[in-house]
Amino acid sequence: MDEPRSAIDFEPTRAAGLERLARFLPQAGSAYARHRNRDLGPDRPASVSRLSPWVRRRLITEEEVCRQAIDRFGPWESGAIVREIFWRTYFKGWLEMRPRVWDAYREERDDALARTESDTKLGDAYARALAGETGIDAFDAWARELVVTGYLHNHARMSFASIWIFTLDLPWTLGADFFFRHLMDGDPASNTLSWRWVAGLHSRGKHYVATPDAIEECSGGRFRPEGLAEDPEPLDDEGPHPDAEALAWRGEAGEGPAFLLVTAEDCRVSSLPGLPASIAGTAGALLEDWRSPLAIGEPARAFADGALKEALRQAGAEEAPVFGVGDMEALIVAIEESGARRVVSAYAPVGPVADWLKLLEARLCERGIALQRLSRAWDRTAWPFATRGYFRFSKTIPHFVSAAGIPFVR
Ligand SMILES: Cc1cc2nc3c(=O)[nH]c(=O)nc-3n(C[C@H](O)[C@H](O)[C@H](O)COP(=O)(O)OP(=O)(O)OC[C@H]3O[C@@H](n4cnc5c(N)ncnc54)[C@H](O)[C@@H]3O)c2cc1C
Description:
CATH superfamily of the largest domain: DNA Cyclobutane Dipyrimidine Photolyase, subunit A, domain 3
Bound molecules: flavin-adenine dinucleotide
Number of strands: 5
């Protein structure tokens, strides 16, 4: 069987991300708006940017992509790509204000994983879905493409999730876990909330139902699956969303030499606001194993690993030690030996890295060392507006863009 190949290299460096952006830019205007749903396959030229792994890691920032697109096409013609970029910002802000949705996802996922062990029928169906052996042509091809390349087009993600939930009748959290383990751009907010959106749990009662016609059209005629669920009910869970909690931008101030802790959450270290002038020591923390109790896919791991190395290079600390999830005590020893009484790190949004940093913070606190999270104006401006649906949030995009100093008139 031919394995899917990716037409582009996903090299986890800022230079490669900027080069990818420069190549994509000429088609970021009306061509993107017209053709972005088309997915001709991993080995064919893309109608989309395939920038998400770099943007996810902030090797290039949302602000940079918006600035270049608006600068080139003006606010009207760049509208489609700018709105897509802001989906990421919206989802991050929404989850940040509802961390219980993330906690509930993790609990439900672990319950569902346990059931795949005890319930043979579920376990077999789950194994067939992961292996791409369901007999549904598009689904099986996408399952293999995801594992081999670490990337899927947005329309493939939507259709895959819809078939997983409504045709195969598998728990949505297991599908979200499969994506999160294998996507190079695997993101706790975009992934969890997109799966919830497809299921009808995000915009309550509105679910995404994949159809053979839409799949045939978007895949350029490569697939026309049969036997898809035709009129499924959206999933329903615990009732209304939890109320939005106030955002807590903790630990911004601080004096004296600091220990810089770099994670792969925000790799544009040199542009972090409030970076102390005096750094007593630097280390990296590679925390990908906390994405899931199951193994992380090779492309996803390699991209995160490379992105962290790039971030350390940017911080002028190429030789700094890198600690894994099980090395918290060794990291604390390194921090204490540096003599710093505070640790600074880029703000990690709700997700596995933030969970790990919370545990670290508690242990540091016992030793009288503070953890300070450096946050970006982009997030501080936009996240508080992610209280309801995306449509409402997107109306404020001109304000967000202007606040970032991007000229919005042409
Ligand atoms: C079930 C499901 C799971 C998903 N999981 C993830 C995930 O783990 N990580 C992730 O980054 N995206 C996720 N997405 C969103 C989206 O599919 C990808 O961001 C997009 O396909 C990336 O490809 P691209 O860079 O070519 O996108 P383009 O179409 O070129 O879009 C440009 C940029 O806009 C942003 N963007 C576009 N669409 C979305 C979106 N719906 N949500 C958030 N950002 C968006 C990305 O940064 C992307 O690079 C998921 C979507 C679905 C339906």
